[in-house]
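Why predict the complex rather than its parts? Because the way molecules touch one another can change local conformation, and only a joint prediction can capture that. The input here totals 378 residues.
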Amino acid sequence: MTDLKPIPFLDLKAQQARIAADLKPRIDAVLAHCQFILGPEVVELEEKLAAFCGAKHCVSVSSGTDALQIAMMAEEIGRGDAVFLPAFTYTATAEVPLVLGATPVFVDIDPRTFQIDPAHLEQRINEVKAAGKLTPRAVIGVDLFGQPADWPAIREIAERHNLFTLDDCAQAFGAIHHGRRLGASADATATSFFPSKPFGAYGDGGALFTESDERAALYRSLRTHGEGKARYEVLRTGMNGRLDTLQAAVLLSKLTVFEEELDARARIAAAYDGRLGNAVVTPARVPDSVSAWAIYAVVLPDGAARDKMQAGLKADGVPSAIYYPRPLHHQPAYASAHDGAALPVSEDISTRIMALPLHPDLTDQDVDRICQSVLAHC
Ligand SMILES: Cc1ncc(COP(=O)(O)O)c(C=O)c1O
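Output of the joint prediction:
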């Protein structure tokens, strides 16, 4: 056991202290104008985020999950449709197709980058076509842990099979792929502003990005109950899916430091690579990309080594986390939707993966202490 103070896995208090001078007047401005829903800060944020990632449209919404749902609703995806997605991701990615009556078809991942495996995606599409029960409609690629999925490969496959591509960028807003920020790599991109995300609000929030004028208009309508141009004209079944103005004010403030924070995350990831690369399997980089480093995950030889490491880290005041302890096809909620295909990489990685703290307010001393602890418990 250590006498040192535990290191926080995430430090939103330290971040708040850094942005306080900018944040407080923005919040006061909202409290003064009282336009709490779709106020001017929401419009300003959408313009700034679209410019930040080079997308034509940004439509802010109430969460990353609602962003995925609105994108699927706009394509009228539902009963009898197959939606391809990785088995190794957060539950929301699979939940949305099921909520809409569609069937998630789980795809395996690359063992080194943890991103959806394009060759297996193609195989799964062909299997669904051969079985003849479901109509392949969409693929949700997830930019897991902050690195981009292999979008050129996913798009090429999707185009050949006439599938809608949705980028679940909940963990990777700010990441760069082939010289461009994520936001226009798929037909639509969904992100999350959940507080623990690299670009997080102080509550739930999310956004959709698209190059399509039609899709952007549909997203705006769907997030406000399917509203038409006139108030109380209801054109389609929608939802209450708006981002609130206070969250937009918080995000505008965080945007002023976001690039510095991304740089700090990258520096810490590089330090972990250098210090830990000979002791544990450190994350392989997706070629020609810059990660947003939502999560820094290492892979250990087996589950026993992971248990030992987590116990040792805990005794040293170093937190760790497991993303994700079960692939989604093994979750009770999704098991009955799964067609029984083997997904050996997702199954194996979930038993051995472990995340270390990574946030912009970790000090050099914190990083040193984390590395020493990992090396001591290998
Ligand atoms: C990969 C992924 N997809 C979707 C979501 C859902 O985002 P939210 O929590 O904002 O609904 C999350 C976040 O938690 C996520 O990590």
